[in-house]
Write a structure and sequence with these properties.
It is globular and about 65 Å long. With 439 residues, the chain is mainly alpha-helical. The protein has 20 helices and no strands. Helix 4 packs parallel to helix 11 and helix 4 packs antiparallel against helix 12.
Length: 439
């Protein structure tokens, strides 16, 4: 692909990203379901493209863009992760709420996907594991796992991941609000007697002046280097470090070549951040800007993945997709509610809705549900989930590992999921059982 072709592709992407944004602004239900503008714009381009109306040519570059950009996004996940010992001790009980659901989704999803593929033989290999990455991670994590499958020669999982993630967002908000209303009527909420309606700006439009916050801070003079250029260089350098480490290890262990490239980003980000701290260069890194750049890359991933969605594949297998989504989402509810009520000493309901939103949609949907029962931001549910994300960043490696495991069957992936589920349930009962502590 020439530079000119790439530039034209980015121009088209920008136009439809804006179209997606303003369609979302005008159609309020899209805002209430937390569907991102990149997803909406990508779907509009998909409809106008060759697979549907054939009015616009979708650039070929869009097909490979998700698998390239997702490596950079993965590098940012562990870049800048710091452990706060005080918060870890205070919020540790919450870890035993989402992790059993995570393990269940991995175990049951993999097995259910395998069973459904026996009835519908054309389903992509290993697609069932996308349940945990789509529902517990959202579009970005699902795209990372699908890219790992593609690099192993397995096609079709990108489309599956995008559809499952979209279904997850809808479930998170629709079912989540049902749980919120039921819980408040039962008196489970700590801070409100009835669910609070959020202001219009929470869902879209221009933020009020008092809500407009800086997206980052300059860390050095622009005479020496542009701020964005410096922070983008840190992020891309993390991926470079990961690639070089894999090359070096490959000299002694050729088998490392089969590991998906997303692991290069995760490992590179972790190693570079530790090096930065060792030589005391943290002041040159603005983590807000790093995360902003990562979010920008993720928007591109979601847009291009949706614009190149395999419509024929999705239409052919919509029935098993809906069966799969229904089973996993229904099972997630009792796992989350039981674990939160049994293991969380304080604000168990707020933490339960946070967990449900994040375990079927993403962190944003979890926070949105918490706001309905905590309008004045008094709850620790959001901070608790942030600590949990930091403590369990090791599970990001499964995005690259599970596609490799599934090449030889479903046993290892189901076994790991089952072990995670059981381990954290046992830890919850041993260390955080509320009934035991009361007795």
């Amino acid at each position: 692909m020439t530079v000119r072709e790439f530039a034209n592709a980015m121009l088209l992407l920008s136009v439809f990203m804006l179209i997606g944004y303003f369609v979302r602004e005008k159609i309020k239900p899209l805002q209430k379901l937390f569907l991102p503008s990149s997803l909406i714009g990508g779907v509009i381009l998909l409809i106008l493209g060759s697979q549907c109306l054939n009015l616009i040519t979708v650039p070929k570059a869009f097909n490979s863009m998700p698998s390239v950009l997702i490596d950079i996004v993965m590098a940012s996940l562990v870049f800048g992760v710091n452990f706060n010992r005080d918060k870890i001790g205070e919020y540790l009980d919450y870890v035993c709420v989402p992790m059993p659901a995570y393990g269940m989704q991995m175990c049951v999803g993999t097995g259910l996907g395998y069973l459904l593929s026996k009835i519908w033989p054309g389903l992509p290999l290993g697609w069932g594991v996308l349940g945990v990455f789509s529902f517990h991670g959202g579009h970005g994590t699902a795209a990372a796992a699908a890219a790992s499958f593609e690099k192993l020669g397995v096609e079709g999982n990108m489309a599956m991941g995008m559809i499952l993630s979209t279904i997850g967002l809808i479930v998170a908000m629709v079912v989540g609000m049902v749980i919120v209303n039921y819980g408040v009527r039962r008196g489970w909420a700590t801070f409100v007697k009835e669910p609070q309606k959020q202001p219009d700006w929470f869902y879209g439009g221009v933020l009020p002046k008092e809500k407009q916050t800086p997206t980052g801070h300059l860390v050095t003079t622009s005479i020496s280097i542009n701020h964005l250029a410096l922070q983008a260089s840190w992020l891309l350098a993390a991926l470079f470090v990961g690639q070089e480490l894999f090359k070096f290890v490959g000299l002694f262990w050729p088998g490392i070549k089969i590991l998906p490239s997303v692991l290069r980003g995760v490992i590179g980000g972790a190693v570079l951040w530790q090096l930065i701290k060792m030589v005391h260069l943290q002041d040159y890194v603005d983590l807000k800007t790093i995360k902003l750049l990562s979010g920008f890359m993720l928007e591109l991933v979601v847009f291009t993945a949706m614009a190149t969605l395999n419509v024929k594949l999705i239409a052919s297998y919509i029935v098993p997709i809906m069966i799969f989504s229904f089973v996993l989402c229904v099972l997630t509810i009792p796992f989350v509610m039981f674990a939160a009520k049994r293991f969380c000493k304080h604000e168990w309901f707020e933490k339960a809705v946070m967990c449900f939103g994040a375990a079927t949609g993403n962190t944003s949907t979890g926070l949105a549900l918490v706001r309905a029962v905590d309008p004045d931001s008094q709850s620790s549910a959001g901070d608790t989930h942030g600590v949990y994300t930091t403590l369990t960043c090791w599970k990001d490696s499964f995005v690259g590992l599970t596609p490799v495991w599934l090449m030889s069957g479903i046993g290892l992936t189901m076994g790991v999921g089952f072990a995670i589920m059981v381990t954290f349930i046992v830890l919850g009962f041993v260390f955080f059982d509320v009934k035991k502590r009361k007795a």
